Amino acid sequence: MRALRILLIVAVILGGLFVIADRVAVGFAEDEAADKLRTSEGLASTPDVSIKGFPFLTQVVGGELDEVEVGIKNYEASTAGAAGTGAGSAAGKIRIDDLTAQMRGVAFSGNYSSATAASASGTATISYDELLKAAKSEPVQLARGVTAEVVGLSDGGNGKIKVEVEATVLGTKLPEPVSVLSTVSVEGDTVKAHADALPNLGVQLAEDKARSVTDFKQRIDGLPGGIKIDKVEAAPNGVDITVKGSDVKLVG
């Protein structure tokens, strides 16, 4: 019995040491992965990297991690494409807040110089202030003596965006912006806003002219590892997006 107790004590101690070693190793790996991701993606700050699954060391031996969660507070995605319904605007940047992605089946090379996830999914938010950059930023002539521009975007409730249009009619600026509700959608890598109805400015307007102000779209590409926007939905603080991808490169 005494020998059995000693064996049990030794087993518990060794198990505890293994757990400690495993957690130390995973912490080191997370820090290294975060630094490499910051460098490869040109991030302004170090992202959060969390390696899931236990034990970590056996995953390393197998050359593949079950799941890695990556969190980036402020990510600047590249943009190209249109404001309004006209021709595309010059390429620029748009800030994406709180990008969190779950990478699954992450295979890595022996020297850790590259890592690729079999699949990825995640969420993020584009604030209304950022999305407003895609709308017309200067007054547009809709008819003789009638100009208008989008001056604000906000949550319209029920998954809609509230678009505020400021207008001047025959030299007189309307006392308050006119609001319309818009449906937001995604097509490929482009986020689109389409007004459910035309703004009532007190004058008859051609639909294409009115929509040149109310409707807009913004292409968003260059997301980490080549992930793509899958869905979009208007929310209180901005447009919530979901992303997904396959064969996503974290490093290399």
From TrEMBL:
Pfam families documented for this protein: LmeA (PF11209)
Protein name: DUF2993 domain-containing protein
Organism: Streptomyces sporangiiformans
